[in-house]
Amino acid sequence: MSHPLTRVLTLLELLQSNARLTGTELADRLDTDVRTVRRYTAYLRELGIPVEAERGRYGGYRLARGYRMPPLVLTNDEALAVVLGLLAAERLGMGTAAPASAGALAKIERVLPHALREPLAAMRETLSFTANAVIGQAPGTGVLLALAQASRARTTVAIHHQSWRQEHTERDIDPYGVVFHTGRWYVVGHDHLRGSLRTFRIDRIASVTPRTDSFTAPDGFDPVAHLTSTLAQGPYRWQVEVTIHGPLDEIARRLPRSAVTLTAQPTGVLMHARAERLDGMAHMLASLEWPFTIHHPDELRQALKDLAAQLTAAAQR
Questions:
Q1: Could you count the other beta carbons within 10 Å of the beta carbon of residue 315?
Q2: Is the dihedral of CA 293, 296, 298, 302 positive or negative?
Q3: 49 closest CA partner among 72, 69, 34, 29
């Protein structure tokens, strides 16, 4: 019973099954100490479970009178889908400011029947991912939900925003869409303060206030396409222009949308990109199976020659 979440769930089971237990009794049953029991009970309170503590010689812990966890009816497939979704969200950095994923998992596992709870717990504790974990920038839950609601209802909102320079501004925006990308949440829309289309990181928005005004998003506007195009035009040292002589659809699947823009040309696909280091760009181009022509910068040619020399030396060892 070494896993902390398992102990928390067991603590809840003990409190459900007993009218009152002292800290020492709980510590003995959980194979831990009284201080850790206090930490676990505090965690249950954060999850909304009313654990009451009574001080004194005959004190102890108990659940509030009349409180019972509600039943949850899920099929095996539904329960697995929920658990895998929560685990994947945590892995991708999609969590919000509160420890919501862990809390949801704890509640779900607590109310599932034992025959289903144990296999799902085994899945949670043994599942591995080939992709690296993403450390996300968590937005506030209320801010994220308010922006999503405003985007669906096509309602203007006022936001309190802090820039990367720590500058605070109040502005009205028309949120065209909410996008999650590599550990960060963004809102894309019309900024009334600047009078232009803007992208804001949601973790930098402190508050959202609905306005009475409504808006109409541009026909065919794609928030994902706009975001990836904006990120690809970030402030980097090198501007790269290369024609890749291959099919557009296949090239697009091989290259990161946030790093490049692709345009079909009679002779191939024109790639515009920006890079801080050209050795990384050389590796990316060398990984493609199609020939390519470098337009600029000329320094990229030397980066490719350096990479070729490294590969030749490695092959001769």
A1: 7
A2: negative
A3: 69
The C-alpha angle with vertex 68 and arms to 59 and 61, in degrees rounded to 5, equals 10
C-alpha angle 296-297-301 in degrees, rounded to nearest 5 = 100
CA distance 215 to 194: 16
Amino acid (1-letter code) at residue 54: E
188-220: pLDDT as tens digits: 999 999 999 999 999 899 999 999 999 999 999
Alpha carbon 80 to its chain centroid, in Å, reads 20
Q: What pLDDT is recorded for position 232?
A: 65
- Tell me how far apart the alpha carbons of residues 182 and 136 are, in angstroms, rounded to a whole number: 8
**CA–CA gap between residue 146 and residue 159 (Å, rounded):** 10
What length does the chain have? Answer: 317
List strand residue ranges (DSSP E) for 196-267, in order.
Answer: 196-201, 205-214, 238-244, 260-265
- Output the pLDDT for position 221: 93
Backbone angles phi, psi at 268, to 5 degrees: 150, -145
Dist CA 65 CA 49 (whole Å): 12
Q: Domains in the chain, please, with CATH?
A: 4-63 (1.10.10.10), 76-126 (no CATH), 141-220 (2.30.30), 233-316 (3.30.70)
